Amino acid sequence: xxATQKGxxxxxxxxxxxxxxxxxxxxxNAKIADIAEVAGRSPGSFYNYYENKEQILEALLEQFSAxxxxxxxxxxxxxxxxxxxxxxxxxxxxxxxxxxxxxxxxQMSMTDTEFALRWQENRAAGIRAVLSGIKSAERSGHLIGLxxxxxxxxxxxxxxxxxWTWMAVGGDADMDAPDDETAIETLSAMWYRTVFHPVPExxxxxxxx
Length: 209
Known about the structure:
0% strand, mainly alpha, single chain, 209 residues
């Protein structure tokens, strides 16, 4: 029911309100009535646009994925390191912006099959993007020396877990939180060195230092 301009504005108002309520109360504690109150609409009006709280979370997660992709493409650099840094920056900053939604997704994925699939789809989009970069690097003459799929999965897991650790659960014990630039630069360097400067293998099958 968002085909008209007024309908689109109302749907957007519910999305913005949901983001605020999720941030203030957490996804599980948020109620449709809370979202409607912040949006300045009636609870009954909510159901003209979304079936339930889960559906509005889905819509917000789609926004998250779109913003990560848009941020990666808009600021993509001319060198491989700049391109990687742009992708990491887009993911890091957008994850922070959508932290309540990411927490909601992770929590729901542990109890709901559909959200577990949504979590996998969210990862799959990132893995495809990383795979594209790995294949491009190999076409440019860089010998990766690792299984592409496994490497892409590991790099996405690194980003995902690091963001979760420092943004969602308070970081590691007895460690100061890194500032944004330190986090982005560290993650970018790890990704770049792994793909573009792999450790050469020796004849015995181990890796040389």
